[in-house]
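User: Hey, quick favor. My workstation is busy. Could you predict this chain's structure for me?
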Amino acid sequence: MSYSVRKKLFRLIPKIAFVFEPLAPRAISYFLSREVTKLKKLGLIYAFQTKTKRLGKFHYLIEIDLDLTSPQTQYFMKKIFPSKISDFKTRFQSLKSKL
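Assistant: No problem, here it is.
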């Protein structure tokens, strides 16, 4: 492959990417839904809905609406915010003991 052919090919790749860029929200929603469906099958979430909106070129708004039961919420809170929850518990217990 000659240098000029490679140069033309590399110039063409970004142009092709820009043509398919408006389709990105659908692709994002599809792959996000697949991953969240795995969590649903494991029983970690009750239900979900995902929305992706294109705000501009390469700017997207992604919304994930999760429905969780009380035990599922506690599980996620312990996994996501373990230190924050333990800090909150100690503060709450110290306030409770003062009353």
